[in-house]
Specification:
The complex is a heterodimer.
Chain A (H helix, E strand, L loop, with lengths): L4 H9 L17 E7 L3 H12 L6 E4 L15 E2 L6 H21 L10 E5 L2 H16 L5 E4 H7 L14 E5 L3 E2 L2 H14 L3 E3 L4 E7 L2 E7 L2 E11 L4 H6 L7 E13 L7 E3 L6 E4 L4 E8 L11 H14 L8 E12 L5 E4 L5 E5 L5 H18 L13 H4 L16
Parallel strand pairs in A: 1-2, 1-11, 2-8, 4-13, 11-18
Antiparallel strand pairs in A: 3-7, 4-6, 5-6, 9-10, 10-11, 12-15, 12-16, 13-14, 14-15, 17-18
Helix pairs in contact in A: 2-6, 2-9, 3-9
Chain B lengths: L1 E4 L3 E4 L4 E5 L13 H10 L7 E7 L7 E7 L5 E6 H8 L4
Antiparallel strand pairs in B: 1-2, 3-4, 4-5, 5-6
The chains are: A alpha/beta, B alpha+beta.
Chain lengths: 416, 95
């Protein structure tokens, strides 16, 4: 069923009785052309683009729990393309362009809202670094504007401009950045894929890979063996655990990212604000809650919750930047488990096992990358060649020495 | 999280800096035939288990010792703490 304004009117006048579930709940077939492991944003996007762009419709997505119950439901929903290294900037800008046309493409309201992201700088060194980043972004077709103090003041007059330690000297502004309703991304891709014949199989955990003579023939699951010509794993957060079942050790550690939301307020923060001197950024959700992004706990973990010192640090940043929020009450916190790769950049590649493909290592960038990740992984699975936007996201770049080290800190995944 | 330091007793984990998997203590031999591959594995590849994990913590705001902490990465329960020095001494030089 295609959604339209006319459809809403029609259903409104007929008691809303005609709405159908967004996707079927089929039993797994014994064999598929392509099996995607992981029904999160990236897995579902991959299945959607396989079916819509690459005409691969004999596809199944296997999800251990319910779709969208991993990190696509546990992030801070920002989309942007402010990166420094060409491989990342080009890729994330491609993703942002896909976000811009996404809702029309998959006929679902994902509430893509390009409300702008402002990254503040507080000293001359940061200003120069941001000018450089802005120029790099523009060279890759992204938008970036340098704002001086007056420009920032026009946008956000309530910031604490004259903080004694961290006075605001300006900011780098990307107007096309914004937020998306994260759950709707998973649902929209699931519905889009399902409409094209992809089987979305929930509550089906992959327990192993059947590998013979260096070729992967299918997956063992809690619902029996499922054969496939090609298997793509998109299970960021749990990549090491899943790929270990195929005997792979990955250049990845799992870390938790902290996020918080306040009680609902009337509209006060129109866009995304990033503090340049601490681990803190925020935006306001359409429900009115202030969404705060914090930082990593700093040690390996699979627990989907953060710890208090990181919350304190984020809220100190908030108070330094926007003292007006001092009496806002916090509502809840959550943590998303992320694949922190050894250079801070993702991996979309074949493995050394024939027929087994890997997508992961998304670090901070997983949510905003969803459409481009799905497109590039679908391209790789369908054509066996890397997508032009993802040629450098190779699994073997660590052994070859071609790292994409955005933060320039070496293999320290918990400290990026 | 509280880390039970073998010399100083229970200390808040905020006093420590985390480094990572304790396999970092097993630096490969640079003279071995296959050293470039061994160093690649040493530097970049991790088991990253969900469950008990032996890991290195440095007591930055304390006695600046390295500890080997065995901690469950799902529950954050710490089951064992020892000084990295003691471990290396027990293991013997060059092992």
């Amino acid at each position: 069923m295609r959604y339209s304004a006319f459809g809403i009117l029609k259903e409104g006048f007929s008691g809303n009785k005609g709405w159908k579930p967004l996707w079927r709940n089929p039993d797994p077939k014994p064999e598929y052309d392509i099996v995607i492991v992981g029904g999160g944003g990236h897995g579902l996007a991959t299945a959607y683009y396989l079916a819509s762009k690459y005409k691969e419709c004999n596809v199944a997505v296997l999800e251990k729990g319910l779709i969208g119950s991993g990190s696509v439901g546990r992030n801070t929903t920002n989309i942007r393309s402010n990166y420094l290294l060409p491989d990342n900037t080009g890729f994330y800008e491609y993703s942002l362009k896909l976000w811009e046309g996404l809702e029309q493409d998959f006929n679902y309201n994902a509430m893509v809202s390009q409300r702008g992201q402002l990254v503040l700088f507080h000293n001359d060194g940061q200003r120069d670094a941001m000018r450089r980043m802005g120029n790099i972004m523009r060279l890759h077709g992204a938008d970036a504007e340098m704002l001086d103090v007056d420009g920032v003041r026009d946008l956000y007059p309530f910031l604490n401009f004259n903080n004694a330690r961290f006075p605001i000297h300006g900011g780098l502004y990307q107007r096309r950045a914004g937020t998306v309703r994260h759950d709707a991304v998973a649902w929209g891709y699931a519905r889009g894929a399902d409409r094209k014949g992809v089987d979305i199989i929930q509550n089906c955990e992959v327990t192993g890979f059947r590998i013979e003579h260096g070729k992967c023939l299918g997956v063992e699951t809690t619902r029996g063996f499922i054969g496939a010509k090609k298997i793509g794993c998109a299970v960021a957060g749990s990549s090491s655990r899943v790929m270990a079942k195929a005997g792979l050790r990955l250049p990845i550690e799992s870390h938790v990212y902290n996020a918080y939301v306040s009680e609902g307020l009337k509209p006060i923060i129109p866009g995304i604000i990033v503090f340049g001197m601490g681990h803190f950024y925020m935006n306001q959700s359409d429900k009115g809650g202030l969404v705060f992004g914090g930082y990593l706990d700093g040690y390996n973990t699979y627990a989907q919750r953060g710890y208090l010192p990181v919350l304190e640090d984020a809220l100190e940043g908030c108070m330094a930047l926007i003292p007006a929020l001092g009496r806002v009450r916090m509502l809840r916190s959550w943590g998303g488990i992320m694949d922190m790769s050894m250079d801070g950049s993702p991996i979309i590649d074949r493995t050394h096992i024939d027929g087994l493909y890997f997508n992961g290592g998304w670090c901070w960038g997983g949510f905003k990358a969803t459409p481009a990740s799905g497109m590039c992984f679908a391209h790789l699975l369908a054509t066996d060649t890397p997508h032009e936007k993802a040629t450098s996201f190779r699994l073997d770049r660590f052994s070859r020495g071609y790292l994409i080290d955005e933060a320039g800190v070496g293999p320290t995944p918990g400290m990026l | 999280m509280i880390i039970d330091h073998p010399l100083l007793g229970p200390r808040d984990s905020q006093e420590f800096t985390y480094l990572g998997d304790a396999t970092l203590l097993n630096r490969p031999d640079w003279k071995s035939e296959n050293s470039s591959n061994e160093f690649f594995e040493y530097l970049y590849l991790r088991d990253n288990p969900a469950g008990p994990h032996r890991e290195l913590w440095y007591h930055t705001y304390g006695d600046q010792s390295w500890l080997i902490v065995t901690r469950d990465t799902v529950t954050h329960e710490i089951s064992h703490v020892e000084l990295a020095n003691d471990f290396k001494r027990k293991r013997g030089k060059g092992a």
